[in-house]
Every structure is written in C-alpha cells, then in structure tokens.
Predict the structure.
Amino acid sequence: MTSHSRYERDLSLPDIEPEWVSGLRKKVGHLRVAKEIFYYRQVDSTNLLARELVQQDTINGTVIISGTQTSGRGRLGREWTSPPGGIWVSLVLYPPHQQTDLSFITISASVAVARTVEKVVGLKAEIKWPNDIISEGSKVCGILCELVSGPSGWAIIVGIGMNLNVESEDLPLTETYPAGSLKVLLGRRISEERFMESFFHDFNECYSDFLKGSQGKTKLLDQWRRYANMLGKKIIVKFGEKQVEGIAKDVDEKGYLVVEGLDGTTTRVMAGDVLRIGIVED
Ligand code: BT5
C-alpha cells in the first residue's frame, strides 16, 4: 500500500515510508485504533490533516504519522515544535453512542503513553493534568484531543506529539516545564517500531475501557492516579480568565480536576493549565 492511497498532498518532499512504519502496520493493523496507517514525511499538522480526512469520511482507526510538522499545534492555538526524530501522530476515532468525552480520551492516551515510556524506554513517567507526559522533570509528550463533526457524525482526533529521538537543540525553550527528549534522557536511540507498537496496544486497551462505561472509566482513573504528579499537592490552575489556588484532590468521573481551594470550596476544572505544583506546608 502506498501512503497516498487515500489522500493526495502537494509536497515537495517525497513520502518515503521508513521501514519501522511498515513493520508497525503489520503488528497493530488488527487493533481498532490503528486500522489504517498513513505516513508523510512532512505535513503542516497531523491534526489538521486528520480533520480533512474526517470530512472525506475516512475509516475509524485511521492513523496519520508525520516525520516533521511545519505548523504543529498545541492547545489554544499554541505552537508545537515538531523536528525530525519525534513522532507526530493523529488518530481518528468514531466513538459509538456519542461517547465524545474528550477529557477521558485524553486520560486514555496519557495512561497509554506513560505506560509505554516506562515499559519500552524504562524511564519513570508522570502525567501532568490534563495532557502532558513528564519524565525526569521535562515534558516529553503533549496530547491534543479535538472533536469534529463529519459526514458520519462526531469524530475524535487524538493528536500526540512524542519527543522520542529528538536532539536537544531542536527542542523549544519553554516557560514552564522544559521540553525533553526521551533519547537524550536515556542516552541512546529508541526503536520507533517498539515504542509505537506498545503505545497502540496500550491505547487500544484504554480506549476499550473507556467505551465500556463507568466500570471501565473507574479502572482508567485508577491507572491515571498511579501516574498523576500533582495529587495531594498545592497547585495553581488557570482556566480561561480564572485562576484557582488549592490542593489537587483528584480527577472526577468526568475527567475534571477537583481542586480544594484555600477557602475550602471545591472547583472542578474541565480544561486548564497547571502553573505550579508545590508541597503542602503544615
Ligand atoms: C500540548 O499543548 O501539549 C499538545 C501538543 C500536541 C502535539 C501533537 S503533534 C501531533 C498532533 N498534531 C498537531 O498539530 N498537534 C498534535 P499545550 O499543553 O498547549 O502545550 C504547548 C506548549 O508546549 C508550547 O506553548 C510550548 O511551551 C511547549 N512545547 C512546544 N513544543 C514542544 C515540544 N516538542 N516538546 C515539549 N514542549 C513543547
């Protein structure tokens, strides 16, 4: 199969597929989240391309992987730096019964990435709510889930940016957590095929749990808590124009962060940025 069989894109660079992508396709093609994998050497943003494919009624489990992105995006239109060596990927899913709960999809993807980092790379991984994977104090992965309407109903696009084999000098200087590369942290290259095979298996399991309803979500939340780096700690979380300071208590059944404010009131935050994580002083 050529990578252009379903989508034509005018790019000056040839989309010669690396061997690991063909190997991966054989290993994960049976999973519901990775039915069809397209590889591009360079795109603007895999999430934007995924949106276009949704409008063309692409199948459930479509995966787009790109070698680099020229306009990779984070949340709220922020820039996502996507140099060579990273894995920039988007998955298209059509969840049955309008299960379009983006918070839980983000939780599913975060748990899958954290597990994969620990299993395949052997480094400790933490999840910084809502969408960052942290290893050795630096952000090695960011997740951007979006809901779009297409000819077959709602589609969820799960965009994941993994700094797998990126060189340090290609990473951006950031204001909060420093950007980190797994290869640099480990001190050697990591097999893309092994990493992505593990990720797709783990994500397939987490996504299946999510689709099972409340029992599956309870299981997912238990796993999420195992990796969460802020529970019981003092945080400042910014959402929209608002900001709350308090203790991060938990994530509720909707995937919202539960913060107990300094005045004892509880705030549930659907989406926001945690600005600081600190120790609770007695
Ligand atoms: C995210 O946003 O962390 C979501 C990033 C999702 C990227 C993937 S790549 C595949 C797919 N296609 C896309 O176009 N996007 C998705 P947010 O929490 O808003 O964090 C954005 C911030 O992370 C930026 O403002 C920078 O400070 C920082 N940043 C940018 N590039 C980075 C990188 N490569 N590694 C670590 N941090 C980075």
The radius of gyration is 18 Å. Confidence is low (pLDDT under 50) at residues 1-10.
